[in-house]
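A brief tutorial aside. Many learners find it easier to grasp structure tokens once they have seen a single protein encoded end to end. The record that follows does exactly this for Adhesin domain-containing protein. Read the sequence first, then the structure, and try to relate runs of similar tokens to stretches of the chain.
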Amino acid sequence: MKELINKLFIKKLIMITVLLFSSIILSNTKSFEFSLSEIKKINIESNISNINIYYSEKNSLICFYENELNIFPDILFKKDFDLINLTETLNKNNPFFLLKKFVFNSNQNNNSLKSGTFTVMTNKKDDAIFVSYKGNIKLKKIFTNYRLIAKNTIGNIFPFSISSKNIYLENVNGKILSNNFISNGELEIKNDRGDIDLKNFSNTVFSKIINKEGNIKLTASVNKMYIKNVFGNISLYLKKFNKCEINQSFGTTLIVLNKNQKYDYEIQAPNIIFFNKNYTKKLNIKNGNNKLKIFSKNTVIIQDISNLD
């Protein structure tokens, strides 16, 4: 009889363990819904999971938490007056953490667990901040009245159809790729390793783009712009500008613009190809108020936009 009771107890214990463990495995989606009527700020930080946020038809913002690694961290959701603060952290004190890590990620270290993707669609905000450690930050239809910040450590940043007074993008290892990108104030982009490609980019005040290793490609209409690149090529298709300064160390610089416009050119480079004419070391031409200043240790090419295929 005692053995039978023990067997039944063990079976129950196994069933409870299986059910509990299954619930942990299968419950990989959580959702939050809250009103947007008074919200002016958004702050999102992710270490591990995919977080998808979009503006629904109910005048509310819905957040879906999706984890593909079967590691389930705690999500701290807090709404204080006009602020959304959504922070995801890995709770190592959770009694199931070591078990989950052992079963699903026994060959991975803690850093490899930190991955995630943002896909964000919102309406107008005063301030929006997106931070990720490892993964991609995808921003779509973001319109902020004051400031938009996106920071990533390992992964890409994709801002599409973005409009904000001030924009700050920072990436350590990854690409920054954009289309329909508008800034009515100050824009600053910093990237340590990876390409920067901005299409249909417009800025009315000042733009600063710094890249240490990778190519920079812009199709832009700007007021004042400063670009610095250490390793990589620079390709600028300038529809309109008042002042543009470029500092290039290792790589070719290609500037495509309208030859019929009047510009002041100040170029220092070992090899200069200026509208199909070759120059060496220096080229100074004063024609108008708009100024293009380039310092490069390699080849600089100035080309007329009409020569493009």
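Self-check: Residues 2-26 form the longest helix (25 residues). If you spotted this yourself, you are ready for the next section.
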